[in-house]
Amino acid sequence: MRLWSLHPSVLDRAALVAGWREALLAHKVLAGGTGGYTRHPQLARFREHAEPLDAIGASLVGLRHEASARGCRFDATRIGRPVPPDEVAPIAVTDGQLAHELEHLRAKVLSRSSEWAPRLPDAGTVPPAHPLLRAFPGGIEAWEVLP
Predict the structure, then answer these.
(1) How many CB atoms lie under 10 A from the CB of residue 13?
(2) Quick check: is 42 in a domain?
(3) pLDDT tens profile 8-60
(4) Which residues contact 147 (CB under 8 A, 6 or more apart)?
(5) CA distance 131 to 45
(6) Range(s) of the domain holding residue 16
């Protein structure tokens, strides 16, 4: 499961679609609708939120907004709680996590859709965060699974 911290505008089409599907799965897990993935480390930040279902809903709304801007149709009726990201208490994310995810995305983009690579932020810069998230200085998040 990859719940991107990066702003959806940074994601190539494959990452945007996969992020949507993974966030829908995360919503199902947080709502108690499945027994799988319940201990997935990337769910920690949503579980710690005062309103976990609103937070994952806001994450999905942000992804859907970007998809719509690109002419893709993500079914809004699949979002259990479609709350705009600016109406939910933000989730903190470190700039180190954002940089880590950018390089992870860059490696994927170079192997599957190299035409998207020039659209990625430069290495060494702090990429923009998903509208639900607020960046602060720090290293890679403790919940990140490193190889």
Answers:
(1) 13
(2) yes
(3) 999 999 999 999 999 999 999 999 998 888 888 999 999 999 999 999 999 99
(4) none
(5) 15
(6) 8-136
